Amino acid sequence: xxFGTLVAGIVAVCVLSCGAMAQQAQPIVIKFSHVVAPDxxxxxxxxxxxxxxxxxxxxxxKVEVFPNSMLYKxxxxxxxxxxxxxxxxxxxxxxxxxxxxxxxxxxxxxYIFPSKDVLRAVTGGPVGASxxxxxxxxxxxxxxxxxxxxxxxxxxKPLISPADLKGLKMRxxxxxxxxxxxRALNAQPQPIAFSEVYQAxxxxxxxxxxxxxxxxxxxxxxEVQKHATLTNHGYLGYAVIVNKKFxxxxxxxxxxxxxGAMSEATVYANAIAQAExxxxxxAMKASGKTEFHDPTPAELEVWRKTLLPVHRDMENRVGKxxxxxxxxxxxxxxxxx
Length: 337
Fold this sequence. Notes:
Elements: H1 3-25, E1 28-33, H2 41-56, E2 61-66, H3 74-83, E3 88-89, H4 116-123, H5 126-133, E4 140-150, E5 152-155, E6 169-172, H6 176-184, E7 188-191, H7 197-203, E8 208-211, H8 213-218, E9 227-229, E10 235-243, H9 244-249, H10 252-287, E11 291-293, H11 297-307, H12 309-313, H13 315-318, H14 320-332
Parallel strand pairs: 1-2, 1-3, 6-7, 6-8, 9-11
Antiparallel strand pairs: 3-10, 4-10, 5-8, 5-9
Helix pairs in contact: 2-10, 4-14
């Protein structure tokens, strides 16, 4: 073999080897899409997960976080996940009803969680796990539940009692339970994508909405809502989910590291949620743009009595047994609906 031919062969082998090594060195990319601002509890938790995942995999995984509907809006993101265009999401629990798993709408029932202890018992126990398991039929793995907080009602008129919502067009997420909730208040439910709510409030397409304070503040809804009432009537939480085909294809050691990172990010997310909502409420009060009403115990009881019948009305949709499993967790902590 001529020397030149030998050198050329060696060079070719080196090029191929280097190319293969470079290809192997390419990190696994996880596109993590969500619809809220980076400075919300979910936004901060997503960034914390990114930090832990990238550090612990030593660069083998790269998490690209896309907040504020940069990639997909509410109605688009689940389809994008199922198609593999995004690998990870943290949609609100109400999103799974339209996907065909209507049992998740149990989380939307008004006053279903009388305390954070009951909430933790549900999401951290067998009831919460069994709900996440149902996602697998849709090509989705449920990794964790993340808190945002409890919702308050807002509008451009005082909302002292349920009667004050009569006739108001109220923005909701697409959920049969939330639809029933607003109809129980004699309001007109209007499903609108989260990214479009501010403009809808500004232009009068809707008169009011329901949100935890952190979402209301970071989306500047308080600038276009003159009144809000601290009803804490409903819970807003998220399920962190991943494309099943993608997740199953990961090397087992990478998957284990990511599961650990997710566990820590979940503790972080749930720990900061209340503080973020408290800070947002203080900031909105300080702005003077929205007047907040803190109901008396007697006023809250009127809200509860008006909304609790929604539980019974939704038994056929979300499952009577499932609702009663939530009640049983509440009873353990001394609460009864």
